Amino acid sequence: MHKHQNSEPFEADDLILAPEWMLLPQGPVRQQALRVADGRFADVGSLCELQARYPELEVRRIEKQLLMPGFVDTHHHLSQTFGKSLVFGEPSEIFRRVWVPMESGLDEELLYLTTKLAALESLRGGFTTVCDAGTRAETGLKSMAVACEEAGLRTVLGLVCNDRRGDEVLAPGPILTKAEQHLADWESNPMVKPSLAIPIPEIATDDMLRAVSALCAEAGTVFQTHANEHLVAVERSLERYGVRPVEHLHRAGALGPQALLAHATLLTPGEIAMIRDSDTAVSYNPVASAWKGNAVAQAELMRTFGVRLGLGTDGTRSDAFRLMDFAEAAQRFAHGLAVGDSSCGGGWSWLEMATREGARVLGLETGEIAVGKAADFLLVDLQVPEMTPSWDLSWELVRLANRDQIQAVYVGGRLRLWQGWPVDWDARALMQQVDELARAVVERAPIQKIHPFSQAHREARGPDSDASTSGH
Hints:
- This protein is an alpha/beta fold.
- It has helices at 47-53, 94-103, 108-124, 142-151, 172-185, 206-219, 231-241, 245-252, 269-277, 286-292, 299-304, 320-339, 346-354, 356-362, 393-399, 427-444, 454-461, and strands spanning 15-24, 27-30, 32-37, 40-46, 58-69, 71-76, 127-132, 154-160, 164-165, 168-169, 192-197, 223-227, 259-263, 281-284, 308-311, 377-381, 406-411, 414-418, 421-422.
- Helix content is 39%, strand content 22%.
- Belongs to the metallo-dependent hydrolases superfamily. ATZ/TRZ family.
């Protein structure tokens, strides 16, 4: 493997960092430098300007690399990493058959382990911030927060607050008291931002939807819910409430600048107008659409009409470059091809959605390289065959870049990963521990798989089976 001048790990404080390329809000630029102090970008400008302002500081030249903001995952499920490929090939609403049964069996130790593994995967994939949608585990969220802090991942941590369990309606008082306590517990934590969540609108009363959303508005944080993700959910909402999920949220008074809708793939023009007019945000989850969805969100249409959007993995795989690639490709296949749109938002729009727009959706001071912002950034190796020669770096990052090009991950100005591995804790020991414990969790959970594992599927079809049969 080729070696760069800066092939050894280094901390970012007390240096002037001078990469060959830097991704600034206006796009990729050269001949720029920055200074990091107290976990934030203290100064950004030309190398000459920074050398003149800080003659006492060493200049760290970073050849053949891009310094860019860390990616922001606006929708994740940190407590689901024990499952992973259990849901491959499964039809929609896997939360009912796989995730709820599995997460319900997690105690605090297991919740810590699954979260720390998820945090490691996210950081390896270039994400420095992740928004967790809330776990179904009955244990507290402290172990999740500890896991993220130890790994070095900036986290928006959701607390589930629904008051409907089947036909039973729970008393609102204890739920709202717990919600208020959760918001207070993490109010001043620099790495953990509290959030409240109701997984889907139908499992809460209108009063609870409105109250939880209002608490988030008052606290300056996000209210999370999955909305209009699957056709079955839309139809179930129509049958039970006479309105679609986004219409339900609108009627309950739960939309607004504090609201973050995950997926939103099946929207009527009227629902798009409700989202836009209320300044509600949307997390576009293209990999989830490909793996288990009924549709692809009209992300470019919504963005054009002023809806705030970020990109989310939905816990599918924590690879930011492949997420951007999917975001553009899914938009093109689902919406662009039919109307002859060959640019489909352009490379820059997906880069912005994956970084600073995602941070704005979450209300965080990160996602861009600018003075005063949190110093969450990546060093990306550009000296690879896939990006040689380079003509349009923004497009190339979306379509050609790979996770293995990430040389370093910094969060709050602190080096957390170097060439894919943590610098201050043993990731391989964690992986061994997870491997020993996760199988028992899955085996005892009442998981219902509809599609068999790949080898069983292949054997069931047999060598002479019709290639068109499903194997179910």
